Amino acid sequence: MAFAGVLTDADIAAALDACKDAGTFDHKKFFKSCGLHGKSADDIKKAFAIIDQDKSGFIEEDELKLFLQNFKSGARVLNDAETKAFLGAGDTDGDGKIGADEFVVLVKAN
User: Fold this and answer.
1) Phi, psi at residue 98, to the nearest 5°?
2) Which pTM does this prediction carry?
3) Which positions of the chain have pLDDT values less than 70?
């Protein structure tokens, strides 16, 4: 598992189950449910490195669509509305992508 040592399988399964239907993904609920919200900035940056599939130093819109698949192979793809809302919440500098520091702030946000 990509998140071994950072998140538990049970927490990931519960978080994925809560957003298994299209239109139900809420990043704040997901981060709290999977346990990432309570982790250190270093652990969150480890998660960022996994989600940043192309290793560009940013999470772009196409990587956000596949966000849930980082937690479990075969998980659903986020729809356009979910992806845009997720990007809008995390992209604080308006460059159209989420950097590591932006991701930490996003995960820690209430």
Assistant:
1) -110, 120
2) 0.94
3) 1
